[in-house]
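Let us begin with a simple case.
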Amino acid sequence: MSFSKQKIGDKNFIAHVPRGADWISVDEVLSSWKNNSFSLPESKFDTDAGFRSAQLGAIYAIKSHWTVSSSAATIVMPTGTGKTEVMIATVVSEHRSKTCIIVPSDLLRKQTISRFCSLGKLREIGAINDSFENPVIGCLVSSPKDITELQELLDKSNLIITTMSLLNSGHFKDEFLRLLASMCDTLIIDESHHVPANSWKKVKKVFESVECLQFTATPFRNDGKKIDGDIIYNFPLALAQERGYFKPINFYPIYEFDNDKKDFSVAAKAIDLLEADIAKGYPHLLLVRASTQTRAKALYENVYQSKYAKYSPVLIVSGNKATDNRTALQKVNDGTSKIIVCVDMFSEGINIPQLKICAIHDKYMSLPITMQFIGRFARTQADLGEASVVANIVDDDIQESLEELYSQDADWNKILKDTSDEKIGREVELQKLARGFTGTEVIPLNQIRPKISMFMYTTTESQWYWRRWSKVFNEEHSHHYVNETEKILIITELRTSNVDWTTCRDITDDNWNLHILYWNETKNVFFINTTDKGIADRLAEAVFDNYKRIAGEDVFRCLSGINRLMLSTVGLKTAVSNHHIRYRMFAGVDVAEGITGATTGTATKSNLFGVGYENGSSISIGCSYKGTIWAKWVETINYWKDWCDKQAEKILNSAIDTTTVLKGALVPEEITARPAVVPYRIDFPSEIEEDWKGSITVKTALTDSKSFLMDIRLTSFDETSELTFSVGNDDFKEEFTLKITSTGYSVSHKSGSIISIRFSRGREMLIRDFFMDNPPTIWFVDGSSLEGNLLVKLKTARPVTFPTDSIIPWDWSGIDISKESQGTDKATESIQYKLISELKASGKYCLIFDDDGSGEVADVIAVQEDVANNKLLFELYHCKYSSAPKAGARVGDLYEVCGQTEKCIKWASDSKSMLERLMRRESDRASNGKPSRYEIGDNKLMFILKNKLKVYSSEFRVYIVQPGVDSTQITTSMHQVLCSAEAYLKDTYAIPLTLICS
């Protein structure tokens, strides 16, 4: 819509579409709105003239809100459901005298001015008649030169439309902002998910006394901050699709694992869709989304302009000249160009309905922004077809919230609806709870984050007397909220006290306390959360005529059902005499003694705290004999309420035996001598073990090496000798002795180089000293583990015989079974060469990698691709030479190799990192001028496999290759060490173990 303009200053202006020949004043405009009837016709079908149900719902919600409140309100409407018409209808029907509308960009400012100038579709749908005058719009494009210029603009405008970046700029003076706020009775913020950003808060604070409406398609920011203001209306995306406001979004996933081809593959599919739609007669356009201007330019030049010039691609980015962008946009609008290459949407809120195909070359890293972006393509229009989105779903690393959206089996239509509605629903759930509260609020409910803890009480009452809270707290210094439907009472209490470091009475501390009471009427229990435990019973007594705090053994039922419970503290109380009770707290190694006392009846449990897993999530839980139950986190009120209900389910369950809960807990035992069991595995401390990217350097006086090129190995394998181990590689090595005595443990140098360790932040120390503070973990054939002088024993029985179907004998004719590695010269008589030859001959593997050497994942890694099931099968082979020329029954031939099988399975939790490590090890070998580690494959294939893991699942199998073992002579001790390794693999990641032998 074209409009007339009058300049105010150098760049600012007022715009108007006169109904007659001349402009009219702002008072005449407002008078026409007040003196004529505004109607709200509803469009029940696409052919009807009227407001959509989503628009009517929003309009009525705003009207309803303004009858009872002047606080900020948020309206959530999916992109394409008509937010702008709701804004226009609200301003006109509510006779707002002067409204400031803030948009996020200049392009959207221009579009909004155009829509408001003619009052949008209000005349077309019959909401207003010809007596309604169009508003005079103040277009605030740049900062006024002085207050007089701004005053003139405001005096002559019914609406002021501007951008947040201008209002927050250093050029826009504080006095300008105050004048703008003082003259407006309404503030409308479009795309309000920007509002919580610190740069925007300054503007909103100046407008805090102005009635504010916040419109958005998603009230959640990428940075996790919430929009303030009550969500007064939320039209679900699922309902928008159901009612035909959106057509289905067709997702076309591209599975291009080759990084060099991904952009061309995405473009080719998008162009196919564009051409198909054009052939059907649709005037569709293709939007190409890039993450940066540099990327957008590269895509424009190297892909779209290069290969698809016949569709006249245009590049629209903020770095272009404004005239170039306008020219490009005109080519789009007149149909000359069919392809737009841009960063994001080149402006939020831009309305080009023909944009129906989207090629996402770089994904958004936030689910809400992705939803908003894709939602633009699903808008319904009679002459347009369905929207299509193309993306290479294995292209980028994406946040967890996007994994489901972009995963191979996901239906984008369903996930888009579900994830949007679910997340908004969680916020609405909290706000719905908050709206049920009445009282003297001082802190918004959604900003209260209590520590997760409570006392639990039983009651037989059918009524609560929440108003009696004032018997406990001073009303003058307290505020209360109550939700009588949900039976929740919240009290915030201010206490003033003298400080203890001065006798001056004029210096005091003000402390706020929080007290929450929730009554579960169905279960006949209530819960109290308080920052002052001493007041809990007084509050209970005030609100209920009869009650009983749950204490004693019943409290410890909350520990039931927690998997892998590890108690970190155990408090006990013991009766010393008739009048004296001794309290003892056990932590660390002493927890074992505490559990013994608690389970044998020699002492009474006082308090326990531990961590574990429940319902697939990690949790913490603490409980005390006096009735406190807690967890180590803070959460919302509704979360705390649900948590209380879950604890009540356990505590009220009389079938739970609290003594059995503790019997399964694993605890460390302090020992004074080494265990009389054979060790077979040793692990670096976690700080080194988890350094998968090689940020830690290990060095001697002559050389240094990355941690991923280092090994830690046991050097003694028997039941009685000193525990010795080595750290190093082919270039250097240091051997250590771990001694355990009655006073603790020590790690001492035994032989070899003196090794230092340097961490990423520059900290450097002898590795021997590092081991004194961070001892390595040694594993024994009975399944126990030792860290320093702390021994943890398994409490579950294990198999005693290694399964025969997991033993595969090979013919080793022509192989020197005492020669393990093929080396860089590919020794044909070696065990490893024989293994690799067999794997190659099978023709099953797309990748075979020789990882032999210090820091190895395994001696050989072979990968099969199961295309039908979208799965990569990783086979990790650990070779070990025979200690004798012929196969036999020597348990010593199994100790070290069984330990290696256990160490490698950590990669099952992150196979992508394993591939990255292999590529680094290949790079290290190549830099030293040595032959490649690849037997089949190369770095490009490795990169492709790494990308496939973003879509494919992975499966691991582990093999021991030891021709020194005769399959017909396996002894009991050999079975023991094999079963120990097998049990560890199955208990952790359910990985099968196979023995290849003679």
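The second case is a distinct protein. As before, the sequence precedes its structure tokens.
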Amino acid sequence: MAVDWMRRHDRSLLSNAFSLLICGLLAGVVVAAAAFPVVAMSGLVAKAGADSFDKLPSALTVQQSPQITYVYASDGKTQLSTFYDENRRDVRLADVAKVMQQAMVAAEDTRFYQHGGVDLRGVARAFVANQSAGGTSQGASTLTMQYVREAISYSATSPQDVVDATSDTPGRKIREMRYALALEKQLTKQQILERYLNIAPFGHSAFGIYAAAQVYFGKTPANLTLSEATLLAGLVKAPSAFDPLTPAGLKLSVDRRDNYVLENMVKLGYITEAQRTEATKAPLSFPGHPTPNGCTSVVNNSWGFFCDYLYRWWLQQPAFGADTYERENRLKSGGYRIVTSLDVNAQSAAMKNILSQRKIGSPDALMLTGIEPGTGHIQLMAVNRTYSNDQSGNGANTDANKRRAGSPGNYPKTTLPLLSEGGYQFGSTFKMFTMLAALSKGIPLSTTINTTNPYVSKYIIDKGSPAACPGTNKYCPVNASKSEAGVFNMWAAFGASVNTYFVPLEEQAGAQNAVNMAKNLGITFNGDPNDSNSDAYRARYGDEWGSFTLGVSATTPLQMANAYATVAADGTYCEPLPVLQIKDFNGTSLDAANPRCRSAMDADVAHAATDAARCPVGDQPFFPECHGATASQTKGIVGKYPVAGKTGTTDHDRTAALIAMTKQSAVAGIIADPDNPLDTHYSHTEVNYAVQHTLHDVMVGKPAVNFVKPSDKIAYGTRVGVPTVKCASVDDATNALKGAGFGTTVDPTPVPSDCPQGAVAKTSPSGSASKGSIITIFVSDGTGGGPSGGPGGGGGPGGGGGGGGGGGIVPPGPKPTFCLPLCRRN
């Protein structure tokens, strides 16, 4: 495509007299040397000129002129912005007011319907007039020749082609004449007029009559009045000089309209003198406005960050060109109609909820992104920032080093892709990846672990790290609360966010498997993979990354929303997608808008993880195994819709995050300081409120769709009988239980039992349990009063029936019948 800035859209009011002489000379040669009796020409010159003219190419190859691309919200009606190098949208002549068609002929070529592309009479008249004036007082280009000039410019393949097409040289005029004569034989006058109206420059980046009518008068070309049409027609000669939006230009453009365009329309019989007078007296106003271009001029500023993601996404798509230059060029000149996935109502709700917690002037960024499960469609991208390139009034950078270096803060204005690039630590929301890896490996939800605080893991860490066991290089995570010690299954541990459950679970599942699961769900890891301090390096050697499950890797709200959306979509991963439909200039729908999805895990794994993820947000899973929640208000706020999710907090509360999801939407939110993400302290109050209420607002009007119940097998695994150890010694009971494939823990508080003091009173669970589960041993206080009869004692996560009775160790018999927690017990 030609280099746009080199095109000359103001036709000079003064042109070279010598050029006109040559043009007149050659035009005369075409018909007869007699057309210019004042010019002496020998027969030899005439013959040579005619031969040369005939050898010029006559077939004009016209490329599609640049067309504006329109971008709409998901409703297909709300315009977000436009992209263009030249603001142009071609229209049919039938959609242009008749007075506009006539005004253009009156302004540019009164003999348009009489000549065959080159107006010999006009050439002669211009030559004589210019000779008499001693300079240039008239031009000789016809409307067809002017169209040819613009068409050659838009079909240029190099900057030199643009220069050749627009320079005032005899050669250019001759070429235009040759093409014009040929074009008149190929197209009708109405077709030529339509093309010219669509290609002519009108100033203020308006090219073609559609853009001009919008920019100046805020209407379509079909609705232009006589007064408006004649003013626009007069601009084409010199759009800058006649600019009606400046006082001097307005005076010149009105004078040209009144005394030239309207006068010619009367002469041509298009209007009466009375209509002319009326048009000159009609009040002029310019209610139009510049057409938005790009993301900094979106109709609503809160849409800017989504628009920016759309733009970046487009540049990455091979369907739009071989490289980013070609892709951007097509976006700005291809005339696409893009219907995006942005739900303006959801976006508005997100901004309302964000701003109720953090104002735009705050250095803290409260960021929300929403994704539709099963498609990857981005529903919202909101943050308490103004999307703007003008950051001159921004606050001080909260990072002292950056501040000393003169770098301003990113608030209140920025164009940084805060929601989709860079990243922040999302804390315990990463436990989802460990849980998925464990479930994929066959480790059921009922798996119990006796959590300690701290937990001495197998992972190696720097001795100087605060996460190291004192005096060692062992990674020793702790819990947020002492109450998080004890026996937990996966439901309860995910609900209460027990760190020292998920690190040993990560050991069982394999840390690299957890990292790979995150990758499979679209999480990327920043930095140089050869730099041992980077996330990319740690992900490369994931088996050594013990802290991964606690969310120490930096990622974005967009990636986390999409990862959780994958789980909600039964394990189907879809690339984040900002578009619903893309149509090219010809109205053809493009495949680039289609969701790009694949299976990321077994569906039952996703169902099981979702079941556990209902615990943190106060919902009830299919198996009633929740014991605690970190964002229990979520279910009540979201309402009738089944909901799942997870909170996340980093060390020292440097960030706070919440992800909540239904079957129709996954909303990820985080509060952090983009300038200085490692030196701020947050509570969950603000981010929880914003996420919970936004998900509620997104779901209004949608049907309640339940999650899918996981299989009994993935919930409880392979059930095996628990040996009866009532009244046995603790050591004997421990050995028997371990021999049956269970882990054990001893509850420190004695319980009433008819067994001897210090002997085993009961176990929990009893009867049967998932292989590998932790069996809790309760010790008798010897006072009697405990349960009697039958094998067992006590319930618990995944546990079975009660009763004490008997004594000593009874090996498990045939696999007993057991009742899952939701079935009715008699």
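The two ends are 80 Å apart (CA to CA). The longest helix spans residues 247-267.
Keep these points in mind for the review questions at the end of the chapter.
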